[in-house]
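Support request, please re-run this one:
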Amino acid sequence: MDNPGLKILILDPKGNLVHEIFPKKGARPARVALGDNENVLIYTPITPEFLFNQSDLEGNTIGGFSTLGDLAGHNALKYTGRVVVKNNHLYFAGHSESILKKYDLDGDLMFSRTTIDDWPADFNYVVFKAGEGQVGSRYSEGALFAFNNFDVWDKYIVTIPHHNGDPDYKYLDVYSRSDSYYLGTLTTDDFPYDITIDDKFIYIQGNLPDQRTIKKYPNNLSRYFE
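Re-run finished. Output below.
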């Protein structure tokens, strides 16, 4: 995705430009993922129609899902979050809303569930007039956030809950991939910011006041939560 978020670049493994995808007018892509069917999933919380849009690798629009309906008074901040696509399913974790969602790539909602923190999100936003017939929004002072990031592996959704100002908040919360029920919590050495999981290891990018770290931990999820 280019820096202004106005187009998506498709590159080959050598970094050569293959195609450019230009989202619909008024849409600003926030996250992009490649589905197992090689369709490009484009997440656009600031959007004229759908939250999730699909294009092929040549930029041809295939469709979209999760409609917002009437956007009058739409607060895009409520829809910010992270997206992971695995095995023809799209998983969404809210940034300022404590919620996990799962869709199939036809747009059918498999689950939508609040998480164990379930912060009172209504207090996270300040909505104001931004011109005639327009509204704007911003995060309120003291807003509480849900997730930094997450990944999906085997039977598990592994999330990094937001620290909300607590530098000792070094946890990973684990949920069931099938129904999003909370399974338990793991601890990390450093303040976690990003996560990637494979069959052998859990890779954690940590954020410290003066440096960023990358550590790998044995992937014992199946042993802990079987």
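The CA atoms of residues 18 and 121 lie 41 Å apart. DSSP finds one helix and 19 strands in the chain.
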